[in-house]
Amino acid sequence: MKFSVCLSTGYEGLAYPINFCTGSDLVDTARLCEKLGYHGVWGNDHVTTQNYVREIFPGEVPNFYEPLITMAMIAQATEKLRVGTALLVLPMRDPVYLAKQVATIDQISNGRFSMAIGLGAYREEFEAWKGNRFPDARRGDMFEEGILAFNKLISETSATFDGQYYSFTNLEMAPKPRQNPFPLYLGGHNTQSLERAAKYGQGWLPGWRPFHEIKERIGIIRNRAEELGRNPKDIEMAPQFSLLLGRTQEQAEATYMKSGLVAHRVSLAYTGRDPKYQVSANLVGSPQTVIDKIGELKDMGVDHCAAMVVAVNTLQEYNEQCQWFAEEVMPKV
Hints:
The chain has helices at residues 23-36, 51-56, 67-77, 95-108, 123-130, 139-155, 191-200, 211-227, 249-257, 261-267, 287-299, 315-328; strands at 2-7, 40-43, 82-89, 113-118, 158-162, 167-172, 184-186, 203-204, 236-237, 242-245, 283-285, 304-310. The protein is an alpha/beta fold. Helix 3 (67-77) runs parallel beside helix 4 (95-108). The radius of gyration is 19 Å and the shape is globular. It starts with a strand and ends in a 5-residue tail after the last helix. The relative contact order is 0.14.
């Protein structure tokens, strides 16, 4: 089982207070995670304030750090730690320059970069970004085209693509990513997301779900991958959970419910993630409770507790939780 955490590249206002950390703090925390033995760190992707965040923090603007640049900086400051995006909002990225950025980071990090991609949780953010450029844009169609275009660019010597949203002709791009196949992870948990993961993904990195749903969807992806002629074991199952340890189960739950992450989970209820499961379906509890939960996840086929979101309100608490988990949980699973 692998363990990695999600840094606050884009979580201010959503999970953490505004001015939660600086850019240099992100690098320092990544160094700490490398020292503690984590597999990697990830960064999430936002460009503007979400509607519900404006209501919680009126008149304040959260600091959102660009995740690709942040991960490149962290890669240069570490030696073995893997770096990645969880999730990069693909419809808001030009595939040509994204492929160039990914190849560059993977080369300079000596093959330590992974990219998880998704549609984006907040449509108002997409609307603010697109302006009048794509008046009839459908994010799902842009996402599908973006995957096809990206894969052509990182694999073909001369790539041509002609889609509704993206097009390029005889585009030669070098260097390619150092890793082959490149570790592209797909987010999401609906039927289309599972199909994309089975078809294109080297990994599946959804947001948390009740454990029985995680198990069910792992089975669907593996069966579909086999039908497509792929080895199901080539797809890493890497769900993203919340993390909060307490000395007792009661203490952990009480602390978790006071964290800013709770409002974020409520804002995502429209995706089908029922907030009433946000404690039971996440790594919230005493160390032994979390160890037992991880055992359940291993048995159902989870390979990686990826991009864990630490449910705290200060950077000091974040780093303390990372150390506690590394010392009391990781060695026992």
